[in-house]
Amino acid sequence: MLDAPLPLQRPALFWIALLSVLALALSPQGAGVPMLSDKALHFGAFATLAVIGAMTGAITPSRRALVFWALMALAIEVAQEITPTGRDGSKADVVASFAGASFGIALTRAAPPTTFRRLVVTGVIVLAATLCADASYRALRDKLDRHYSVYADRSSICS
To answer: Around Cβ 117, how many Cβ atoms within 10 Å?
Structure first.
């Protein structure tokens, strides 16, 4: 049962998932998951979308897929910037989204999720990578905040 082939050659599932992510990305509140940083949410969403795209046959994991994901990440951030949702576009979000998509593509190329067992393992790997991305982002953000606050304190002393 676990090693039976997945009957998911349905590209419509990918497009539904993509539209769901777009709806969340353009909503005023966004996804609103307080446990994860915004960058981790971008990474996880795009990694998941890339896996679903490959799994359903909607998008072949290739260099063209990388271009598609880069344009999609950029388009979402531009749309956030120009729509009146109160959300701002971010270059860091584009990078996090593209990194997630690249991870999803690499994962599906290395071990295509063709059985239920592989799909579960792929999901666990995406979740673990998202949590690692969150921890890395928070550690880096805190370190940069401390670094730049030291310079901000020095500049206020000098002036």
So the answer is: 14
pLDDT at 130 over 50: yes
**For residues 52 and 18, what is the distance between their CA atoms, to the nearest angstrom?**
9
Q: How far apart are the first and last CA of the chain?
A: 71
For the record, the structure tokens of 64 come out as 């063209």
- Rounded Cα distance between 85 and 22, Å, is 13
Domain ranges of the chain: 11-158
82 exposed, middle or buried (CB, 10 Å; 0-12, 13-18, 19+)? exposed
What's the CA gap between 97 and 87, in Å, rounded?
Answer: 16
DSSP reduced 3-state for 19 = helix
Angle subtended at Cα 123 by Cα 89 and Cα 61, rounded to the nearest 5 degrees: 70
Fill in the DSSP letter of residue 6. Answer: P
Q: What is the pLDDT of residue 100?
A: 94
In angstroms, rounded to a whole number, what is the distance separating the alpha carbons of residues 46 and 146?
Answer: 30
What pTM did the predictor assign?
Answer: 0.79
